[in-house]
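Throughout our pipeline, every protein is held as a single compact record rather than as scattered files. The record that follows is passed on verbatim for readers who wish to inspect the format.
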Amino acid sequence: MDGPQPRQEQARLPFDRMQARAGYLQRLRSIQQRGLIPLIDVESSYNPHKLDVAAFVSDMDTVGMIMCASAEQPSNLVNKGQLWSDHSLELQRAYPTHFIPVGNGGGHPAWSEHGSAFLDAAEQFLVADGYPMMGEFEFHHYPSPRQVQRGDMHRDVQIAIDGPLGHRLFALAEKTGLPFQLHYEIEDVLLPPLESMLQQYPKATVIWCHFDQIRYSARSTLYGPSMLAQWLQRYPQLYVDTAMGHAGSVYELSGERHSRYWTRKSEWHEVMAAHPYRFLAALDIGGDRTDSLLLWGRRRREFIQSLPDALRERVAYKAAWKLIYHEEI
């Protein structure tokens, strides 16, 4: 595996988030003028060789999405013999009001097989290139429903969050001030190590992905609105992204509906209202479904519409804007 070389060394230009702000804001206002609540997607990924960028951007316009935080997939990097790519920066330069660059996500196999070298690359490029946030890091990740259907079971990832890689990542987040996305299944045995890390790194901003998504209910008896409310109160650096399955989505390996929000909405709405700006919209578009943005966008809007009026704009875009720009909009 080669060292942490970016995709096109000579073409690299740092992202200037304040310079980009005016364009994002103009796009936000134009979406509002259409009578839509704008969406900011804080968690997606793509394979640049399989992404029809023009079609994706057109779908973003239809869906009413301001900016998509999308990172090049780690599997694609490793296939090229790399552990870092600046393609996300190139994408933002090509469509400066549609995308916001994100550091490469920590997924299989770049993260699971080359974790230390992957973090070397992150440390080298994240701040130097002006990334406003890191990508999604997988510490415990069951195969996705689409992978199960394909018989592709390699993604049963289990990395100790309180092990060496976890400590390096949390320390990097504290040092840089950049949020990172965390994929970490909601299970009883996994909660104490995560809480320990939140206690040890109080300045590491963590976006816990896939709100209330539980794939094996017997393994998760502690988590719920009350527990998460306590954690949000105790750990002000903890955020939650709301990428999850629709109401009828069933996880094939367990035979269970794994998005529990839909059966206890009123309880969750109380938690969201009590902890403003801590819940973030996300679509979780991946490289195997970038042509399905219209469907996923419609489902995110179904979720947004399920919220009380006072929460809709906050979750859809205001929380993400505040996280990125440190200001209320």
Observations:
- The chain is about 40% helix and 15% strand.
- Residues 52 and 260 are 33 Å apart (CA to CA).
- The mean pLDDT is 91.
- The longest strand covers residues 39-46.
